[in-house]
Design a protein that fits this description.
Number of strands: 14
Mean pLDDT: 91
Structural class: alpha/beta
Low-confidence stretches: none
Largest sheet: 9 strands, mixed
Number of domains: 2
Helix content: 40-55%
Strand order of the largest sheet: 6-8-7-9-10-11-12-14-13
Number of helices: 18
Shape: globular
Radius of gyration: 22 Å
Length: about 375
């Protein structure tokens, strides 16, 4: 297993500052493994409950009785399976002299987020654990990471065939078991068809009406489908940026499958040669590079946008970072250069800096305020 030292340090810091920390992430992303690493360094008592274990579930049949006398670190895995636990946690952490901290692990379903936001405001901090990134796997593995994605069992599989097989099994289990457990009652076959169609929209603007017609359902229904996948952290929406310009600007979000390994499984791409020749190869690499750049910047996704006008100007990623506006274009080419869209973005959005990110290991200036930088070099040196 690849050590996830930075993520462990971040969660430890949150546990020092908050009585409850929610470690969230998609299924099989490594939350339980990370929690085990945190437990190994604990000097205080540690109590663990895994709500997928019938014995632990029975222990928490009366959660107040089970939890109120505990001290030290209390870990509750698969917390979304226990409705109402957050209300009890608020009572427990507000006790005078409370000697317990709670680390709750779970997929970020809508019920989980809604319960905690209503009952634990000011008492809980969330940490989203992403799949592996280049900083963890190393630049030499960048092609494998792009193809297989960052889910540990997929990336670490002995070969591409077994990685592809694991991802297919993950998708089946996710649709048949995990989504229903999160309160999302859509037939697995319907959601599989929808998710596959969505994969063909990867990197494109969302058009719920068009997908609804293809599925034979209404636009609000497909909007609910995509929101379910977004809430489960397997799909990401990138919202459009718009401001008072004398240009008509696009208002529809873009959609991305959050992990390129899952994207490729949905598209039936099972190897590197198939990926390089696939029509969605460029869009796949754009999403992959975008994820890595957002990690490098250390910003939340709610500060990330794309920008486009109805006249054709477009910017792949706009980040508001500490009062600065930074723009990014992602080009799967060996010779990046300034484009008309990039000139428009610099002028209209008054960007402080603009980067073209490409699959190389060098950097060079292409404009007084724009630079081309290889993805692996950006990961190694920063921006």
């Amino acid at each position: 297993m690849i050590p996830r030292v930075q993520h462990e340090a971040s969660v430890r810091e949150l546990l020092r500052r908050f009585p409850v920390v929610g470690l969230i992430g998609a299924r099989q992303v490594g939350k339980t493994t990370l929690a085990r690493g945190l437990i190994e360094g604990e000097r205080q008592p540690v109590t663990i409950f895994d709500l997928e274990d019938p014995t632990d579930e029975a222990k928490l049949a009366d959660p107040k009785l089970a939890l109120e006398s505990l001290r030290g670190l209390v870990v509750v895995d698969e917390v979304q399976r226990m409705e109402g636990l957050f209300r009890l946690l608020r009572v427990l952490v507000d006790r005078p002299g409370n000697a317990a901290r709670f680390l709750v692990l779970g997929s970020a379903g809508p019920d989980l987020l809604r319960q905690s936001s209503e009952t634990l405001a000011g008492r809980i901090a969330y940490y989203e654990l992403p799949p592996f990134g280049i900083a963890e796997t190393g630049a030499e593995a960048v092609q494998r990471l792009w193809l297989r994605g960052g889910f540990p069992p997929s990336f670490l599989a002995p070969d591409d065939a077994r990685s592809f097989g694991w991802r297919g099994a993950f998708i089946r289990t996710f649709l048949e078991r995990d989504l229903p457990q999160l309160g999302i009652s859509v037939p697995a076959a319907t959601m599989r068809r929808f998710w596959t169609m969505l994969a063909h929209y990867h990197g494109n603007r969302w058009n719920g009406a068009e997908l609804g017609r293809a599925l034979g359902v209404t636009a609000p229904t497909v909007n609910a489908y995509v929101d379910a996948l977004v809430d489960s952290l397997v799909v990401r929406k990138l919202l459009p940026w718009h401001e008072n310009l004398k240009k008509r600007q696009v208002r529809a979000p873009k959609v991305y499958v959050a992990d390129t390994g899952l994207l490729h499984a949905l598209l039936g791409v099972d190897g590197e040669s198939a990926l390089l020749g696939h029509p969605k190869s460029g869009a796949s690499w754009e999403g992959f590079a975008m994820q890595e750049i957002v990690r490098i910047l250390g910003v939340d996704w709610d500060r990330c946008y794309y920008w486009a006008t109805h006249r054709g100007a477009e910017l792949d990623l706009l980040v508001n970072d500490g009062g600065r506006r930074i723009g990014f274009e992602f080009k799967r080419t060996s010779a990046p250069a300034m484009t008309r869209s990039m000139h428009s973005a610099l002028s209209d959005l008054k960007l402080d800096r603009l980067f073209t990110v490409f699959p190389g290991h060098s950097r060079f200036r292409i404009h007084p305020r724009a630079e081309a930088v290889g993805l692996t070099l950006a990961c190694a040196e920063g921006l």
